[in-house]
Amino acid sequence: MAVGKETLFDRFLAPIFRNLIDRDAIDAYYHSRDWETASQQFCNPQVDYPDYYQQNFHGIQGGYLNLSAAFSYDPIVQYVLPPGESIVRSALIDRITSQPRRILDLGCGTGSTTLKLKQAFPQAEVVGLDLSPYMLVVAQDKAQTANLDISFCHGLAEATGFPAHSFDLVTASLLFHELPPAIARDVLRESFRLLRSGGEVLILDGNQPILRSTPWLMEVFEEPHIKAFAQNSLDADLSAIGFDNVETEAIWLVHQITRGVKPIVGRVQFEAIEPTAEAWAMG
Ligand SMILES: C[S@@+](CC[C@H](N)C(=O)[O-])C[C@H]1O[C@@H](n2cnc3c(N)ncnc32)[C@H](O)[C@@H]1O
After folding, report:
1. Cα of 107 to ligand 1 centre, how many Å?
2. Beta-carbon-side half-sphere exposure of residue 112 (alpha carbons within 13 Å)
3. Among 50, 97, 198, 266, which is most exposed with the fewest C-beta within 10 angstroms?
4. What is the DSSP letter of 281?
């Protein structure tokens, strides 16, 4: 893994992960495929990578545009979501109050939450969107292995190109702490635009008040935007954008799930948009 020198991540976390993770399994996966060819299928030529995205994340140079970020992500993340990755991701699924027909998972990464969404709502059309083609390769591999029909798209969470009112549920897990505040608000505005009336947004991330009171935790993970995330309030941002029933619940102390509902304005709207995910991906 290309890890930055002299970072806290390098000095403290990397040695721990080196002992915990199955290095042979990671190497075997890395050598099992031609990553450049596989990632090409996801490369949307209309995507310009913003500067905020091309910084080092978790001590990895180039962040998620570095191939090593993709194949080392799952082996590490399984150890950093106490009390357990599956429990924390399931907490988001458990808080879905509707029976969504179309679901969009923003910043889906390697698809760990996306797969759970499809398993929970097998009839729903599920789309995962991410800016890293390498992360999308891993996500698609996992969906195929699990025999789950999920569409994965390469794009910006703040400007997806999907039609307005085209989703019943928009989710994002572990995305918002990686965004500068202005972009985070753009992603919330985009979510509002994409949701049909009565649709819900659910966001799983670090617990903002807890992060504010534990500055050392924010240093350790080498996240360029996490301090700004901690200073903000997703509740306030969702409310300002127009979501109703906004609430944030602490999950196992260090995580939070924030929920909001797009208000139903006037009478019930019947949206006639039935495009396929592939058509949406083309914008
Ligand atoms: C910490 S990972 C979380 C991945 C996944 N949601 C999970 O729960 O494991 C953050 C992901 O967000 C993606 N990302 C960051 N900024 C993005 C943006 N503006 N648009 C789309 N994806 C973005 C990154 O490429 C990365 O895969």
Report:
1. 3
2. 21
3. 266
4. H
Q: Please state the pTM of the whole predicted model.
A: 0.89
User: What phi-psi label fits residue 242: left (phi over 0), alpha (psi between -120 and 50 degrees) or beta?
Assistant: left
**What gap in Å lies between CA 239 and CA 242, rounded to an integer?**
5
- The Å distance, Cα 98 to ligand 1 centre, comes to 24
**What torsion, rounded to 10 degrees, do the Cα atoms 213, 245, 121, 71 define?**
-30
Helix, strand or coil, per DSSP, at residue 31: helix
Structural contact between residues 262 and 192, judged by C-beta atoms closer than 8 angstroms: yes
Tell me if 113 CB under 6 Å of ligand 1. Answer: yes
Any atom of ligand 1 within 6 Å of the Cβ of 200: no
Q: What is the pLDDT of residues 189-213, one digit of tens each?
A: 999 999 999 999 999 999 999 999 9
pLDDT tens digits, residue range 116-136? 999 999 999 999 999 999 999
The Cα 187–Cα 160 span in angstroms is 9
What would the pLDDT profile of 57-74 be if each residue is shown by its tens digit?
666 777 899 888 888 889
- Assigned token pair, 133: 């083609």
151 near 265, Cβ under 8 Å?
no
Alpha-carbon distances of 49 from 100, 202, 250, rounded to whole Å = 31, 25, 32
Q: Is the CB of 74 under 6 A from ligand 1?
A: no
Residue 201: beta bridge partners?
170, 260
Q: How far is CA 70 from the centre of its chain?
A: 13
Closest CA to 17 of 82, 66, 79: 79
Burial of 83 (0-12, 13-18, 19+ CB in 10 A): exposed
Contacts 24+ apart (CB under 8 A), 38-45: 38/137, 39/133, 39/134, 39/136, 39/137, 40/133, 42/133, 42/136, 42/137, 42/152, 42/153, 42/154, 43/133, 43/154, 44/153, 44/154, 44/155, 44/281
